[in-house]
Amino acid sequence: MNIKRFRKELFSRSKLRAIIAIFVFLALWELGSRSNEWFGFTPPWIGHVPAPTAVLVAWYALLGDPGYWQSWYLSTLRVLAGFFAAMLIGIPLGLFMAVNKTFNGIVFPAFEILRPIPPLAWVPASIIFWPTQELSIAFVTFLGAFYTIVINVVGGAKSIDVRFFQSAQSMGSSQWDVFRRVVLPATLPSIVVGSAVGMGITWEVVVAAEMISGGGGESGSGGGLGFFIWNSYVGGSYEQIVVGMISIGIAGFICSELLRKLGSFFTPWLRKR
Amino acid sequence: MNDITQNQSTATPSSVNLKKVGEIKVTNVSKTYGAALFAKEVLKNCSFTIERNKLTVMIGPSGCGKSTLIRLLAGFEKPSSGTIEIDGKRITGPGRDRLVVFQESALFPWMTSHDNIMYGPKARGENTQKNRDQAEYLLEKVGLSAFREKYPPQLSGGMQRRAELARAMINNPDVMILDEPFRGLDCMSKELMWEYYSGLYEESRRTNFFVTTDIDEAIFLADRLLIMSNIPGQVRAAIEVDLPRPRRLAFVFDDDRAIAVKMEALAILHQEAMKSFSGGSKAAADFVEAYSKRSGGNGTAGSKEPA
Predict the structure, then answer these.
(1) One digit per residue, pLDDT tens: chain B, 307 residues?
(2) Could you report the predicted ipTM of this complex, rounded to two decimals?
(3) For residues A207 and A226, is the Cβ–Cβ distance under 8 A?
(4) Quick one: B77 and B156 in the same domain?
């Protein structure tokens, strides 16, 4: 019980430390931004950034603005669309590449040539290829997650201990049974890791794609948090740029956290007892 | 520890459902890895029989080809020459009649103990009430009833080995092949495992082939002891271990017959170690030295004899 108490204290202390650290950071930021106003001296870099209080005021004003929430909605939708498409295609493809040597031999070279191309390099081409702007942005986000997921799935499935196959085989497992009850669950941790990393890349990509493709779509298309930031920049509203940046941070964090929870649900054997 | 004493009462050979199967005949088997200059002959003209419904233990110096032999018996690899037959049928690949329990745990980490044990029956579409009952019975028998919903990483090393024994037993194979299954366990859990395992064997009397490097383990468990030579491996000697069953730690190692068997086996192992020591093997040096100290300084190779 003593240890428990000690732990509790340590936990609260580390929490306290985190809160203090954030406040010190915000205070320094405030000081740097307001330095010109207060001391008549503009420090480099930080002196040009809007102060946190100003950002908060701008954010508060935006909370009632449906356009801001529309940006959230659009970006999230694109991320999810690209991400789920990447999972839907990437996981079976990766598994099949790992299991079938011939298939791997055919697909892998093309895959390896396409993989180093950054998703953003696809933006102009995908705008040409796809009929709508929505689809072309979703396609670019898809690419962001796709390669990571495939690579992780292939790696995970190929590194399965040969003894698992041998014992499954000697217990009378058919090939399909081995796939379903050995290969799939053994690859699951790699699928979770690949998805988590892929999700992070998806958010990076969607924002950049939105900035590039702009908000010029008809009937409410375009937009998104990336465009929101770019638009604020063009419009000279620097507080809103920071609001957009923090919004993306929060959105990415929520997605990763949900994915982690989901991953832990599907891999109960990896949890601490 | 209560369940061990319970085991004893139920450990009568149930000759009712005794499967009189699983005789394995190994005839002139050789196995060479690599080719030409780099060829390494691991087994050479190796011949022996694993008698049915007996627990045959094979013991030999490390690196003598025991694990190779197991892969051949299991059918994961094919011999370079010679034949291996089970009940007169040639072994050509892995089969349900022979089940291998591996050196390190091969339990599926993503399944609970219970699901691991039920893997085999489910794989063959035999998820019947009888098999489900059998799974519960085996869990109980290896002392894991309270751990049926735990995943392997949450079990101790000894529990994992026991779960693995149960997972093999439920498939009711003609032969169980065990490749140093208790290696790496501490001394106490190892002895506990011997009692659990011999209890399981005494109940089923199925054909068992058990490979080990531990002489005490070999004598405690064996009906018949096969001693391997150095590489390229052959069976040097076969000793009948006619100790009474059920065996219990409390008396087996005080038994005169057990001590005699142990001395006999050690003498043969010593000769083999001497041979490979003079052949330049450093691995054998420790054994030779230990043996010479035990037998009062007879070993010529023990350079550091106590003054």
Answers:
(1) 444 444 443 434 444 466 778 889 898 888 888 877 778 888 888 899 999 899 999 998 777 788 889 989 988 889 999 999 998 889 888 888 888 888 777 899 999 999 999 999 999 888 999 999 999 999 998 889 999 999 999 998 889 988 998 998 898 888 999 988 888 888 888 888 898 899 889 888 889 999 998 888 999 999 999 998 887 888 888 888 888 888 888 777 778 888 888 888 888 888 887 777 777 666 677 777 777 777 765 444 444 434 3
(2) 0.77
(3) yes
(4) no
In angstroms, the separation between the Cα of residue A222 and the nearest Cα of chain B is 44
* 3-state secondary structure (DSSP) of residue A217: coil
How far away is chain B from the Cα of A173, in angstroms, using its nearest Cα? 5
Residue B184, in any domain of the structure = yes
* Same-domain pairing of B187 and B157: no
d(Cα A162, Cα B285) in Å, to the nearest integer?
Answer: 34
What CA–CA distances, in Å, run from B234 to A48, A233, B272?
83, 82, 11
Please state, in angstroms and rounded to a whole number, the distance separating the CA atoms of residues A260 and A163.
29
H helices within chain A, ranges in order? 2-39, 52-63, 66-99, 101-114, 123-129, 133-158, 162-170, 175-178, 184-213, 225-235, 238-266
At the fourth CATH level, which superfamily is domain A53-270? MetI-like (1.10.3720.10)
Q: Using CB atoms, pick whichever of B119, B150, B152 lies closest to residue A171.
A: B119
Question: What distance in Å separates residue A172's CA from the closest CA in chain B?
Answer: 6
Please tell me if residue B251 touches chain A, with a CB cutoff of 8 Å. no
Full residue range of the structural domain in which residue B137 is found: 105-172
CA–CA dist A150, A86 (Å, integer): 9
Say whether both B132 and B166 belong to one domain. yes
Please list the ranges in chain A whose pLDDT falls under 70: 1-2, 9-10, 214-222, 272-273
Q: Which of A83, A96, A70 is nearest to A224 (CA)?
A: A70
Best of B108, B122, B149, B175 to disrupt the A interface (most A CBs within 10 Å) is B108
* CA nearest neighbour of A154 among A96, A240, A85, A203: A96
Kindly state the DSSP code that residue B237 receives in the 8-state scheme. Answer: E
Domain count, chain B: 2
